[in-house]
Amino acid sequence: MSDPIGGEVPQQKADVVADAINRLLTELSVKCAKEEGVRDYFHVAVVGYGATVGSAFAGSLAGRDIVPLSEVADNPARVDERSKKVPDGAGGLVETVVNFPLWMDPVAHGGTPMNRALQYAESLVAAWTERYPASFPPIVINLTDGESTDGDPTTAAEAITAHATADGAALLFNLHVSAAGGTPTAFPDTADGLPDSYAQTLFAMSSPLPSHMRSYAASQGQRVSETTRGFVYNADITTVVQFLDIGTRATELR
Amino acid sequence: MGSATGPQRQFPSGADYAEALQHTQLCFQHPELKGARPELTKLGLPRAISGAFASVFSLTSPSSGQRYAIKCFTRHVPDQERRYQAISSRLAQLDPAELSQPWNIGFEYLPDAISVGRDRYPVLKMEWVEAVTLSSWLDDNHTHRFAVDRLADRFEALTRDLATHEIAHGDLQHGNLLVASDDTLRLVDYDGMYVPALAGMGGTERGHRNYQSPMRGNDDFGATLDRFSAWVIFLSLKAIASDPTLWHRLHEPSGEFLLLTEDDFKTSGGSTRLQTLLAHPDRTVSGLADHVRSLAFQPLDVLPPLAIAVPRQRAAATTASAVSGGRTVAAPDTGALPGWMAGHVSPQATSTPTAPSVTAPEGFHTRTLLDVATAVLWPLMLVATVLMFVAGFSAPPIGPGVPVLVAIALTAFARGRRAERAQSRAALAELTNELAQLDDPVKAAEKLRKDQAKFDAAEAKRAADYLRAQGKLTARYHAELKEVEKRKVRKQRDIDKKIDGLAEELRRALAKALTDKQSAYVRDQLGRRLIAQAPPHGIGPKLAARLAAKGIRTAADFTGYRSVQNTQYNSTGAVLVLSSGRVVDVHGIGEAKAIALDVWRRDLVAAAEARQPRALDASERQSIEQGVANRRVQLTAQRKAVESETDASRAKVRKQMEDDQKRLTRENTFAGDQARQQRQEFSRRAVALQQNSALHGTLSASVEAAKLRQRGLSFACYLRFLYIGR
Asked: Where is this region: Disordered (chain B) (predicted)?
C-alpha cells in the first residue's frame, strides 16, 4: 500500500484510498443533506486492514462499526486545510485554501489481510441483514492493492454475498489500485484484458451491478451490459469517487 | 477516466460545489454573487440542501444584502436552459391578482455562472423563501384542525391555479410545498415543471415515488402530471384535519411521505396504512381514501383534476337542498354515493348522466271547443237541476241529480280527451321504464362492496400464502443445507480418523517389515544348514537320508518334534513337525534323536538370531513411508472430493430453491397481474356506479316530478282549468 500509483501527481496508494474514502464521506454527507440536516439514508462502516483489521474511523468515532450518516457528517476526526490552485477568472491560477474533512488516515504498513477484512465485513453484513431484512442490501466496497496476504479471498467474498435482504443479495464491489500498470478499467463485463491474476480474482469476486445502478452508470456515460460487474481497475481518483458514488446510490433520494 | 466517456456532460458533485463555494470571490463573476457569503455548517463548509439532480446553497449578496437560494446542478438535464426560459416566461405572465395565493417564486437561470475546476456551469438564482416544508409545518400544526383544513383548501386552490393555466409541477410533495408564516403555500423546485410551451418534450424526472401513480411512466409529461399527487396530498390534509391523531399513527418521524407511501398505492389490498384510512369512521376520510385507491389503477390522463372538485362541492351543497326542477345531483346518503363524493366524482362521471328524454306537461293549457262546451254545460245543468226541483220532477227514474251526473260524465269525457293526460301517462311510463332498466345503485354498491371485500380477503390470503410458501421454501432449503453439511461432516470425520491413524499404521508397518526381514534371515540361515553335511550328534548318514526322504534336509524344514505314546508297546516315540505344520514319523528317530535334532536346530536359530539385521535399510523404509504417504494423498483427495461433492450438493439444493423461488415469484407475479386487472375492473365498476347512481337519482326525481304533475291533471284541477284557464 505504500507503492505509488500512476496519475498526474504520483501519490501513494494508501493516500489515494484514504482520500477517496474521505471524499466519499463528504460527498455522501452533502448528497443526503436536507433542510433540517443530514438524513440517515445510509449507515456507514469503514474497516481498515493492515497491521490490524477493524474500524478505521479516527477521532470521536474511533472504534465504532456501523454509524448513521448524520453522526458521521457531524463528527470528522478533523478538518484539514488543503491548498489548491483554482482559476482566477482572468485566465490564471490562484492558490487557495479549502477545508477538507477527514475521518480516517492512510494505513500503509503491515500486510494486506484481505481475508480477515472480508470476514470482518461479513460479520457486519450478517448482523445488518438480520436486523433490517426489508432494507436495501448492504454494499461492501473493497478498496485494495489486490495482493491478499492471507490466502485466497474468494470464499470470504462469497460469504458476504450469501447474505440477502428482501431487495436482493448483499453487494461486493472491488476497487483495485495496482502498481502493475495496464489500461485503467471501470465496470468491465469480462476478465479478459485484466493485467494480472489478482485483478482477475477481484473481478470474479465482484457482484454484477443491479439494474438501477446499471442505468445510473449508463446515464453517466459508462458502457454497461447485463454482466457488468462492480469492479474498477487503476482508474484515477475521479473515477474512484465516481465509482463509489454509483456503488452507494442505493435509492433515488426523492 | 476509464471508459467514462459518454456523450453527456459530466457535472460536478454536491461536494465539488461545496468546495468551490468556499471562495465565491473566485467562482462567481455575477455582480450580486461575487463574494457572496454562504451559509456554513458547523464544520465550516457551505451548507447544502440536496435532491437527486441538484444541491441548493444559501448565499447572501454583499452588494444588495439580498439572500438567495443558488441551485447547482449535479446531473445533466436535457434542454435545461430552454426549459427554464419557458417556465420563467410562463410564470412571469401570471397575474398575481388572479392567483389564489402568491405561490410562485422568482428565479433566474444563469448559464456558465459558477466555475468548478476548469469549467463553468449554470446555476439557478432563486429568491430565498422564509417558509417551512409542508411536512415540518404538519409536525408543528397537525393538531390545529381548522388550520389544516384551511391549508387543504388552499392546496386545492393552488392546484386550480395550475390547472387553469395548464401548468403541472411534476413533483408535488411535502418537500416542494412550503408554508409561509401567513399559512399560504409556496411552490418550489421547478425542474420538472410542464408549461404548454414545453409540449412534446419528454419528462426529466418521475417525481417523488411516494406521491406518484403506479401508472406514471418515464415519458409522461403534460398538464395532467400532478393529478394523482394532488389527490394524495389533499386526502392526507383532509384526513389530518378530520383526525389529527392520524399524523402520529401513519406518518413516521422524518418519513419521506405524509400518510401514504408508494407501497400503499401498489398493494392497496394489503397496506395497513391505506386500510386505516379506508376503515376510518369519518366518511370524508374513508371516501377520499377509497377514491385515491381507485385512481391508482387508472391511466394518468383520465384522472379527475382535484381543482374542479372545489366549486362543485360547494354548488352541490346549495342545490341539493332546493330540489325543484327535477334535475339534481344524486340525493345524499342514498347508500350508493357518499355525500362527500357529490363534488368529487370524475368530470365524465358527473357529466354523462343523460337527462330524461321526455318531460311531463305541467297542468292544462289552451282550452279547446270541447272544454268551452263543458264549461258552458255546467251552469246550464245546475240551472236545469234547480228548475227540475221547482217543477217537482223528483221521482225516479229522472231524479234531480241527473243533469249533474250528465255534467260530470261529460267533464270526465272532456278531461279524457285532453292531450296532457296522455302525454303525462306516456312520460311517466317511459320514466318508470327507464328507471326499471337501471340497476338499483344501492344494491349495485352493496354488491361492489361485497365483491371488493371478497377480493381483498382473497388477496390478503394470497399474500399470506405466498409468504408462507416462501417461508416453507426457505425452511426446506435450510434443512437440506443442514443435511448436506451433516453428511459432509460425517464423511470427513471418517476420513480424518483414517488420516489420524496413518502414523500408527506407519509404525506398525515398519515393525512388521523388520520382523519379516529378521525371520526371513533366520529361515535363510537355517535353510543353509544341511543335516547331511553337519549332522547333529547321533544322526548318521543313513538317518540323514531317511530324513531327507521325508523332506527334512535342512534345519529350516522342521520346527520341532512331538512325543508320541505308543500304548501298544508302552514306549515313547517321537514325530517331527514340518515347517508346513504336518507331522512325519521317520523310521529310526525316537524321542532321544528327536530331542537331539531339536537342540541342534535351536542352537542354529539362536546363532542366526544373534546375527539377524537390527533395522530396515533406507530404501525399504522409504518404500513403506512412500506407501503411507500415498495413502495420505489418497485420503486427502477423498476429503477434498467430499468438499466438492458437498459444494455440488449445496449448489443443487440452492438451484432447487432458486427454481422453486422463481416459480413462486412467477406465479405471484401472474396472480399480481390478475389482481391488478381485477382492481382496474373494480375502479371501472366504481366509476360506472357513480354515473349510474347519478342517473338513477335524476330519473327517480323525474318520476317523482312526473307523478306530482300528474296530480296536477286531476278532475278538480280540470274543473279549475275550465273556468280559470290554469
From this structure: 639-677
Q: Where are the alpha helices (DSSP H) in B169-255?
A: 227-242, 245-250
pLDDT at A146: 67
Q: Using one digit for the tens of pLDDT, what is the confidence trace for A195-242?
A: 888 888 899 899 888 877 777 777 667 778 878 888 888 875 455 555
Residue B668 at interface with chain A, using a CB cutoff of 8 Å? no
Q: Is the peptide bond before B338 cis (omega within 30 degrees of 0)?
A: no
How sure is the predictor about B353, in pLDDT bands with cuts at 50, 70 and 90? very low
Could you read off the pLDDT of B192-226 as tens digits, one per residue?
Answer: 899 999 888 888 777 888 898 888 877 788 888 89
Quick: pLDDT tens for B323-338: 333 333 333 333 344 4
Strands B571-578 and A53-55, bridge-based pairing:
unpaired
Interchain pair B52, A236: CB under 8 A: no
DSSP character at residue B209: G
Q: How far apart are CA A121 and CA A113, in angstroms?
A: 12
What mean pLDDT is reported for chain B? 82
Q: What is the pLDDT of residue A251?
A: 39
Whether B651 has a pLDDT exceeding 90, the answer reads no
> Which residues from B are below 8 Å from A254, CB to CB?
51-52, 171, 173, 175, 208, 256
Facing B26 at nearest CB: one of A89, A101, A222:
A89
Q: At what angle do helices B441-528 and B618-711 cross, to 10 degrees?
A: 170
pLDDT given at position B419 = 81
Which CA distances in Å does B372 have to B402, B411, B420? 21, 11, 17
**Which of B24, B43, B178 is most worth mutating to test chain A (most A CB atoms within 10 A of its CB)?**
B43
| B residues 114..133 contacting A (CB < 8 A) | 115, 117-118, 133
Q: How much is the pTM?
A: 0.57
**CA separation, residue B313 to residues A206, B345, B350, B598 (Å):** 59, 10, 12, 133
CA dihedral B209, B215, B220, B226 (to 10 degrees): -60
Cell digits of residue B561: 518334534
Look at B8 and A221 and tell me if their CB atoms are within 8 Å.
yes
Whole-number CA gyration radius for chain A = 18
Residue B518 CA to residue B516 CA, distance in Å, equals 5
Using a CB-CB cut-off of 8 Å, the residues of chain B touching A30 are: 13-15, 17-18, 48, 50, 55
B299-325: per-residue pLDDT in tens? Answer: 877 888 885 444 444 333 333 333 333
Cα angle B93, B95, B97; round to 5: 170
Which residues touch B131 (CB under 8 Å, ≥6 apart)? B178, B179, B180, B181, B186
Q: Please tell me the number of Cα atoms within 13 Å of B206 on its side-chain side.
A: 14
Q: What are phi and psi of A208, to 5 degrees?
A: -65, 145
Q: Which amino acid is at B614?
A: R
